[in-house]
Amino acid sequence: MDRRVLITGIGVVSPIGIGKENFWQALINGQSGIDTITRFDANLYDSQIAGEVKDFNCDEYLPRKDARRMDRFSQFAVSASIMAFQDSQIKLDKLNHERSGVILGSGIGGIFTFEEQHEVLMNRGPQKVSPFFIPMMIVNMGAGNVAIQLGLKGPNSCVSTACESSTHAIGEAFRILQRGDADLMVAVGSEASITPLALAGFCSMKALSTYNQEPKKASRPFDKNRDGFVMAEGAAALILETKESAERRGAPIYAELKGYGASCDAYHITAPDPEGEGATRSMLYAIHDAGLQIDDIDYINAHGTSTPLNDKMESLAIKKVFAERAYQLKISSTKSMTGHLLGAAGAMEAAATVLGIYHHIVHPTINLEEADEDCDLNYVPKKAQKMEIRNAISNSFGFGGHNGSLIFGQFKE
């Protein structure tokens, strides 16, 4: 059996649009999804802005009774996965359910439920805490709910490695298919952590942007005046399928997943290694895993958080990997528009990368008005560019020093 792995479906719930097409059109048009927080009163917080998902109606994808027993992050995960299944033209009655699985990545999981039920405990006592509190909160339940709704009985797991979570999830789903343990995997990242406690925690760390008066300009990766990332929520799901399985059923094919690399800085709990050593190894591992050379890479979807330390480090790591070729690459940050989806960011950016390969377009990095002197590469400022992308890297880096890189490329027989 041919164990090459293809992307055959994409589902997105994002601050810039729900559904693959809405997401993609917003990306190439450079539209920001950042605005003042509406979910709760954030006036006392240093950062009062976020990338909230607007107009989300999980009733379109889930029975209402089931939705009420899920945290928002699970609702996002299931909805994105159902969209991806529909996009992939999978017929559930013909699917080998025992050979189909799910891996979910989420950095925080059901924190909305955690905060809500803690308030119930404090105000009304332990007898009033919901019996669904634990199964709504725990992070693995996102993967479990996707499997339950779609009847997927193959490998099922979750990854929680901070902002690298869903890149790891995609990479581990890739490995499952490569070693023959399944024929189809849903790799999904989901996060719904725009809550009072989570926002307070990130504000206390001084990690967030405080461009409160100009929300749409707040996420500004690689810009000299960047001052932190912007929290966001949402989910993205990719259908990963073996070439043999995809071709047997005549599936639509967006791209091929060719390589995966992971490493750890072993440096600091939140700050990246300033020399970019771990990020450098992550990219090199992925290139080697794909059997490619550095000249075969045309585009990088950067982690690009808009924090002073990350953007400088990532630019340095790219230069270490690619040397002079670094200046010929196109690089862009999806987070400039969506904000930072934490554990779901990797899947969202993988979707953006795959769509770029499929449509031959590199989406822009918006709000890049004055480049940092340490960030001197081509970040595709402000406007999308048409370009044939042979192979692309999607990078994710997370608290704890986690690093992950995926390589997607054009599918050719």
UniProtKB/TrEMBL annotation:
<dbReference type="InterPro" id="IPR016039">
    <property type="entry name" value="Thiolase-like"/>
</dbReference>
<keyword id="KW-0444">Lipid biosynthesis</keyword>
<dbReference type="InterPro" id="IPR020841">
    <property type="entry name" value="PKS_Beta-ketoAc_synthase_dom"/>
</dbReference>
<dbReference type="GO" id="GO:0006633">
    <property type="term" value="P:fatty acid biosynthetic process"/>
</dbReference>
<feature type="active site" description="For beta-ketoacyl synthase activity">
    <location>
        <position position="163"/>
    </location>
</feature>
<dbReference type="GO" id="GO:0004315">
    <property type="term" value="F:3-oxoacyl-[acyl-carrier-protein] synthase activity"/>
</dbReference>
<keyword id="KW-0012">Acyltransferase</keyword>
<keyword id="KW-0443">Lipid metabolism</keyword>
<keyword id="KW-0276">Fatty acid metabolism</keyword>
<feature type="domain" description="Ketosynthase family 3 (KS3)">
    <location>
        <begin position="2"/>
        <end position="410"/>
    </location>
</feature>
<dbReference type="Pfam" id="PF02801">
    <property type="entry name" value="Ketoacyl-synt_C"/>
</dbReference>
<comment type="similarity">
    <text>Belongs to the thiolase-like superfamily. Beta-ketoacyl-ACP synthases family.</text>
</comment>
<dbReference type="InterPro" id="IPR000794">
    <property type="entry name" value="Beta-ketoacyl_synthase"/>
</dbReference>
<dbReference type="InterPro" id="IPR017568">
    <property type="entry name" value="3-oxoacyl-ACP_synth-2"/>
</dbReference>
<keyword id="KW-0808">Transferase</keyword>
<keyword id="KW-0275">Fatty acid biosynthesis</keyword>
<dbReference type="InterPro" id="IPR014030">
    <property type="entry name" value="Ketoacyl_synth_N"/>
</dbReference>
<comment type="function">
    <text>Involved in the type II fatty acid elongation cycle. Catalyzes the elongation of a wide range of acyl-ACP by the addition of two carbons from malonyl-ACP to an acyl acceptor. Can efficiently catalyze the conversion of palmitoleoyl-ACP (cis-hexadec-9-enoyl-ACP) to cis-vaccenoyl-ACP (cis-octadec-11-enoyl-ACP), an essential step in the thermal regulation of fatty acid composition.</text>
</comment>
<dbReference type="InterPro" id="IPR014031">
    <property type="entry name" value="Ketoacyl_synth_C"/>
</dbReference>
<dbReference type="GO" id="GO:0005829">
    <property type="term" value="C:cytosol"/>
</dbReference>
<protein>
    <recommendedName>
        <fullName>3-oxoacyl-[acyl-carrier-protein] synthase 2</fullName>
        <ecNumber>2.3.1.179</ecNumber>
    </recommendedName>
</protein>
<dbReference type="Pfam" id="PF00109">
    <property type="entry name" value="ketoacyl-synt"/>
</dbReference>
<comment type="pathway">
    <text>Lipid metabolism; fatty acid biosynthesis.</text>
</comment>
